[in-house]
Specification:
Number of helices: 3
Order of helices and strands: EEEEHEEEEEHEH
Distance between the termini: 28 Å
CATH architecture: Alpha-Beta Complex
Largest sheet: 5 strands, mixed, barrel
Strand content: 25-35%
CATH topology: Inorganic Pyrophosphatase
CATH class: Alpha Beta
Number of domains: 1
Strand order of the largest sheet: 1-4-6-9-7
């Protein structure tokens, strides 16, 4: 049996080996690390690209949406410059929450996501923005173009989750949401993170990608 040569390649690294998306900054790929059903914090290992158990969630709070990152993005100086409260970028790929009408209970999947807005989060002085979007081919959300097209209570849940998921009883929180923004600002954050990635790693033209 002859196996096509493409199957002999190493598995692409989800951060560096996948494309940003079909039509960034509006339509991007989201690599999902955590689902709304998870009480464990999973995170892609930066060296191997495999999913690693980071920690059990300390509280009973559960993610209100699918959560992961946009490939080939990086929160560096350009992302940091968009927030007057940040001292630096967090040095990670840009985080993204994806809203889907139908439950998706698997992680390590890739979604086409239409960007709507985001949260400007500061974590111990670091810019740690959370982009918010919808599953691109989800008919239920087909008319959603702006963050204001989502139910207000859903944005409140996402806001509350990221405001509280790192709380430690008896300790002052160093994590907070500076503001909520719509698509115009989300576009700037995604574009800045793409430019930060090129500064840090190059454009990745020599790496395989999923388009």
């Amino acid at each position: 049996m002859n196996i096509p040569s493409a199957f002999n390649r190493w598995r692409p690294h989800p951060w560096h080996g996948l494309a940003v998306g079909p039509e960034p900054p509006r339509l991007v790929h989201a690599y999902i690390e955590i689902t709304p059903f998870d009480l464990i914090k999973y995170e892609v290992d930066k060296t191997t690209g495999y999913l690693r158990v980071d920690r059990p969630q300390r509280t009973s709070s559960q993610p209100p949406a699918l959560y992961g990152f946009i490939p080939r993005t990086y929160c560096g100086n350009r992302v940091k410059s968009l927030s007057e409260k940040a001292e630096r970028g967090d040095g990670d790929p840009l985080d993204i929450c994806v809203v889907s009408e139908r439950p998706i209970n698997r992680s390590e999947v890739i979604l086409n996501t239409r960007v709507l807005g985001g949260l400007r989060m500061i974590d111990h002085g670091e810019a740690d923005d959370k982009i918010i979007g919808v599953l691109a081919n989800d008919l239920f959300w087909s008319k959603a173009k702006e963050l204001s097209d989502l139910p207000e209570v859903l944005i409140e849940r996402i806001h509350h989750y990221f405001s509280t998921y790192k709380l430690v009883p008896g300790e002052e929180s160093k994590t907070y949401i500076q503001c909520v923004y719509g698509y115009a600002d989300a576009l700037k954050v995604v574009e800045a993170s793409m430019a930060d990635y090129e500064d840090e790693f190059g454009n990745g033209s020599d790496q395989g990608s999923l388009n």
